[in-house]
């Protein structure tokens, strides 16, 4: 690394949070372009889209150049993610030029580079978690592939058997097509059966012909749905855990290595001591530089943990632990006086006031409010057009507000809203928004004489959400909920992962299928066929599925979510070859990504059940206890 | 324990395998009575059913009395399973008397005690594995209950929100009913959505009204289907593992304890040795008594493992290991000469014969047969009415037969058919049955001029099953398959568990719902309504689901399997209150039992991936290597 002032300044600038936010903003803009690009949800002329995209591209290029200036040249070119970003940028530019030229001459053109956009999210340095998830998938692939091939082999064998058993019997499916006569159709139908999407339907013709044939389908489902899907989960879970361990080990090793290097810079000799040590002064300086927001008391606490024997200096081993020490969140229970106490001590410390504080903190207070919430739930369930019920809302709102105010009176506000008090934040936000929405709604009703549906929706949602709070007062639920809240942040990585995959599939799907179906809001001649003659009177149109299409990016995403949940026979809709797209989607999203998600939730709960505090935290706690 | 000769003889008689088989046979007969009892698949008069059941009851009582004579009286009455069996027998008797009396006077009567029958399978001593599975479920229940309550709470909250958001909008479902207006209906619909059975349908009316409402359903599915179902799996898996460990630990402790007691009986003093020891002679006697089929060489091997230092006696520690030693299956690679070699050594050991043996064991031989199998697969896929294809079957059959004969020539037959050679057994059984079935089929065609559909079905199935063999020659598949084959026996416990639960639900379902629906084979006026006016032109009848009913025990079982796979809206079929039955079934079977099954498969694969040989096996192997 270069240690010249300009280089350091450039490095600090690169790591400035504003630039990071800017980068994410432009990645988001770049991804959201799909909304206005053809096939568009909101139409925007091509030149405008191009302009915005060029703008994004220049920001990305600027960031890349900045990064290249910050780190040594050979390191930059060795890192595959930089190469990847560079190639994506170049390909996008080439695609834009081709597309622009073709469109200008009124030719058919495909914006194929849109598929590459989400890869930027993966490959920019900030997406470390996401890259780790992708690496983990890549590492699991060989083992998944073995199981997958065996699984496909099993489906092929069953298909062949089904063809031989049912093909010559002249059975008909429910919509009159011949049953199990074409090998590829059989394979596809049985693949869909694994997902259980067409579960009894596909079996009914054979089962109606003879009860014995049910055995075939039961064995098929047992082997493929239950056993193979579990094996997939086992393989994904096993690899996930193995890889996670490896990653954590490597991270710890890198951290140790860096800390040792830092120690080598800070070390000094101490008389009567063979090993080099770090003095309290330089340690203090360092910590103050790294975490300037740490209070003096907290810093002293950490030092006293590191320096067991009160020698005024620490050795290499204790120094290396510093990073771990800094990571532990010590909830500083500052017994700061309540603002009201400072303002008027006599009043706040008077007997009735003290009595009120004790009452608010009492168990009965919590129970009373649990009962109020339950009563509120009943009121919500009743018809809100009754004026009594409608006005009761004000009563409940004021009760909830009162609760928050009472708690704020009893507890120091900054402690009440400290970072780990999830439920206090939740309460306040929900109640205040409900209050604001209800006031707006009432104002609109009394002024304009009508109430907006959107605002009412928000009011109703907030009202119901308030009820969730009751869960927190039951201890056995709190453990589960806290685990779920704890894994929340990591789930964001998953959200990104799934958005990357969905985006790619949505782009491809939109290019392939857009305009094939149309959704008609009102009764119109096209409704019974979704605007596609091939679907005239099909069960797809009859079931009102027309809105499940790839006509714009929003409906594409919703359709992909539906496909994740149940991979329905949407496939047969336009053309048999479209099935390849849907099977591919199922393999990647359901078999791999959903299993990783499940593995992740499983691991989180296993860890929660067997969690034991690490040594370091325990030593810190001991010190706190010693200090009183 | 009583050690009188009569008592010992009684005890030995009790443990005789024939009595065990007899007991299982009568339990099976008792369970199968459901086939002939009303509502019957095959009609049998009531007195005949009663007679058979009485016969079963007397056998069970006899067994119980026998058991009571064998073990001490206080132990007998302390064991809950004996009490349980006794109560079941009494209740069954009472039920039979009431039922008989009511039927004799032509009153309506319910055979409620049939629900208790599968409990006999659980509670007779032989069902130890099954009891363990039930105990494991019972132990997991409290934790499952917490998650379940939270899950139900989440569904209730979402239902309330759905009611508020969609109820007043005047939306209609696809069959014209009002959408989300009744709270209980909403709860049920959303519960079914968790199982993904009604996935896009339930969402379509809201989604068609506005795309924003899709967000509600996506969040619902994310939380309830993905997160909560994973948490259920985590809880079940965690408890399963914890409980398994506990059971294994206890088993080992009991075994140790018993071995120590045996040691106390056999121990003797040895000069120059402080601790009591067991001599080689008494050890030999004991082993010969316990496992009389053990060869002398094997016994000597075990002794030399136990007696490291060749002292002629062993201490307590080495003696206690005996049970584990006996459990290890030493595959005695008896280099026994081939029978042909004994019969004509000159011929069998001649150069062409040796060359043939080498060729058969060569890799190329396996590959040639893999190619043959693949070619065969193509031929099976083609139309078998073409005479060329039809006759090719004989060619392939003879090739397969030749393979088996060649292998039998090269390998000693008893080694070839030893217990761990799964694939050799598989091959031989499939090929020989295929040969027999094909011959019967050809004979029938040439004699009667027609071929039986049943025999053809069997022929086709066997033909396709032959292809599975190809998997065994690919190494990466073999690992997975071997794990699956290894867990096969334990899966039998699951099969029993699921049969117990299915049987109970089938009995209840048959009493509640039998005769509500009818299945009509041909076109008949009742077909469009499944014989129930309430279902006239319903989508249930239109989808041809009429055969999914509780009219007899076979269709009940098949329906329950279908419900396990996808808990469809079968429920709305006759009466809304029937839904309780289906939700209960889903909770017990899908949430608990299927998760245990998945946990079990997961555990098997995790163990397989991290398997390390136990110390004892290693020490045995070392000894074998030492001995050469």
Mind telling me the CATH superfamily name of the domain at 339-473 in chain A? Answer: Voltage-gated potassium channels. Chain C
> Oligomeric state of the chains?
homodimer
Termini Cα gap of chain A? 45 Å
CATH class of the domain at 339-473 in chain A: Mainly Alpha
Q: What is the number of E strands of chain A?
A: 2
Rg of chain A is 31 Å
CATH architecture of the domain at 339-473 in chain A: Up-down Bundle
Mean pLDDT of chain A: 80
Helix percent of chain A reads over 70%
Largest sheet of chain A: 2 strands, antiparallel
Beta fraction of chain A: under 5%
Shape, principal axes of CA atoms of chain A: globular
Residue stretches of chain A low in confidence (pLDDT < 50, at least 5 long) are none
CATH topology of the domain at 339-473 in chain A: Four Helix Bundle (Hemerythrin (Met), subunit A)
Helix tally of chain A?
Answer: 27
Biggest chain pair interface: A-B, 79 and 79 residues
Strand order of the largest sheet of chain A: 1-2
Verbal overview:
Two copies of one chain form a homodimer. The two termini of chain A are 45 Å apart. A two-stranded antiparallel ribbon of chain A has the order 1-2. Among the domains of chain A are: 5-126; 339-473, Four Helix Bundle (Hemerythrin (Met), subunit A) (Up-down Bundle), CATH 1.20.120; 484-610, Helix Hairpins (Orthogonal Bundle). Chain A is built from 27 helices and two strands. Helix content of chain A is 72%, strand content 1%. The radius of gyration of chain A is 31 Å and the shape is globular. Chain A is mainly alpha-helical and 628 residues long. Chain A has helices at residues 5-14, 17-36, 46-70, 73-78, 80-104, 117-123, 128-166, 183-194, 199-209, 213-266, 280-290, 296-306, 316-320, 322-327, 339-343, 345-348, 351-360, 363-381, 387-410, 413-416, 422-448, 453-466, 475-513, 539-542, 553-565, 578-610, 615-627, and strands at residues 278-279, 313-314. At the A-B interface, helix 7, helix 9, helix 10, helix 18 and helix 22 of A face helix 7, helix 9, helix 10, helix 18 and helix 22 of B.
